[in-house]
Design brief:
Layout: E1 4-9, H1 13-24, E2 29-32, E3 44-45, E4 54-55, E5 60-61, H2 66-75, E6 79-81, E7 85-90, E8 93-96, H3 104-113, H4 120-127, H5 134-148, H6 157-164, E9 172-174, H7 179-191, E10 195-197, E11 202-208, E12 211-216, E13 221-229, H8 233-236, E14 247-249, H9 253-261, E15 263-265, E16 267-274, E17 286-290, E18 297-299, E19 308-314, H10 316-320, H11 326-340, H12 345-351, E20 352-359, E21 370-372, H13 380-385, E22 392-394, H14 408-430
Parallel strand pairs: 1-2, 1-13, 2-10, 7-17, 11-14, 13-22
Antiparallel strand pairs: 3-4, 5-9, 6-9, 7-8, 11-12, 12-13, 15-21, 16-19, 16-20, 17-18, 18-19
Length: about 425
Amino acid sequence: MAGENILVIGAGASGLMAARELAKAGQRVTILEAREKTGGRILDIHDKDFPIPVMLGAEFIHGNMGLTISLLKEAGIAYHPIAGKSYNIQHGKLVPYNVYSNYWPDFMAKIQLAEEDISLSDFLAEHFSGEKYESLRESVNAFVEGYDAADPDKVSVHSLRSEWEQDENQQYRIEGGYGKLISYLAQQCLKTGVSILTEKVVSHFNWSEGFVEAITSSGERFSASKAIITLPLGVLQIKDGSLGFVNFTPPLPIRMGAVRAMGYGSVIKVSLYFKTAFWEEEALDAGFIFSREIIPIWWTQLPDKVAVLTGWLAGPEAEKQKKKSDEQIINMALLSVANIFNKNLKQVTGDLIKGHALNWGSSPFSRGAYAYTTVAQPNAHNILGDPVENTLFFSGEATYNGPHGGTVEAALVSGKAVAGKVLIPELDKKFS
């Protein structure tokens, strides 16, 4: 195929954002996407049997995220705060949420003083060992696994401290689903001449300074002067040559070393639509529910009054379940819901209208959900994000350097930033 100025590999939030910025600046851009549609780890299912879009990927805006919200306003896409209170399950009853135990202030004080960057497990063992801190260790580990999808044995304490310093209590949902933002970015790209080619599984890159050739698994070849690679970290970490694996000639030992050193968490997400919102028997205002079931975290759609529960399992426990089928996940979810609300499993199953599940760890073009910083290489995201001879550029939430790791905001910010890196040398050429 005729050469393009720039190839973008991946049509998720980062790739679309980068392509949009480059095209606006006059660059000729082609996006190659492995899946049959755009969006990446933003995946909304529109099912006529569900009352709302089923958001199996990203769902929440975690605070007042500047770029995300500015794009929504630019596009005229409405969003609203989530509502409802958070509850724990204790002895089969919903009680007000208290995940941190009485020792949480002590934990936060210690983490603020931590000079050495160590893993969370090592930090807890050093400062909070013993029986009296058992509930603290359990709750902190559960939070880090559930929210960050991180392994406590690997995650950097300094990175967690940076994240927790952000006071972003309010969360939002996009009305109609996150897919609306993806559609807007894709339309913006198409309007500015970007070619978006789906079902193009890139398996190999030949490159030299100022030249890139991307070869797909079907043998198609696309050439350009530069390439932006927004493949998820889990895909870049594939070693066995299975679907999604990419190879570079010549190899990139420094970047791939950073890839191997980074953490990448699995997530299982399930959405269940019932005939009745039976959880309202326990609490009309239930927003989030935290339990010790196999699928431990659940949330409602408040302030929208629909009989939909969404379940979430993340981190090492999700990794253990990554070979489970969608049907098996839905069965696990129904059992968890039955146990949480002291219902008969047959009764809960009979009340189900329909369920959807996605095991992100087994998805070939994601291999998990999002990245986290490890103590082994806390600077890995910067190493990966450093351009290779002004020819290969890596982008995506795994290259993001800031307090909002693992979010759509991180992906969008990284996409905008990498476009700037590409454009600076181009502008130098233009005015030389």
